[in-house]
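Quick illustration for those who missed Monday's session on complexes.
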Amino acid sequence: MSIKLTWLGHSAFQVLIDGHPVLFDPFLSGNPVAAASPTQVSAEIIFLSHAHGDHYGDTVAIANRTGAKVVANNEIAIYIARQGVAATHGQNPGGSFDHGFVIAKWTVAFHSSSFPDGTYGGAPNGFILTAKASGKKLYFAGDTALFSDMSLIGDHGIDIAFLPIGDNYTMGIEDSVKAVKLIRPRYVVPMHYNTFPLLAQDANAWAERVKDETAAMPVVLPFGGSFELD
Ligand code: NI
Ligand code: MN
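Prediction with manganese (II) ion bound:
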């Protein structure tokens, strides 16, 4: 039983949770650095942090092909059900739900959230996942600014944190290093960078700072690269 994650570029991840495939924010078609096509990925559950096109991405097509359940905030769950997705589940910050092999707790994020067609997408989110078989805990921050209540998220005992470092729309390097200090994860994976010129960042410089200033181990992946936690 383990966690295996593969970075598909931007904030899109294919994650195996104790053998069950899930996706985070599957923005693949239209993603210039996508490491997989929407027809190549697999999912029992798609976890969606917010409605922006660079996260919502191929959610509907993948859910309809795989039969995956889409877990997102209530507004997104209702919108996606209207697009014809059979299985959706809405959560909001502070709430946990047992999805069978994984428990998801929804968290706040400081950002905005609307669909590409302008429809209101509710408040943006992150989420904490607890793998039931292995007990591993993942925190996916979504798109967010730094906020001090990340220390409360850290109190869960996070094994792997996924944090944006791209700046402009989210935390940049400086604030994400501060976030690592608050969250205190064992491992931290950077995301939401190097997708477009506007999000260009030196992830190795970020990793050096994480190593020097925090107790966490940075995991910098190439597009399509994987990391496994036993
Ligand atoms: Ni966004
Ligand atoms: Mn984004």
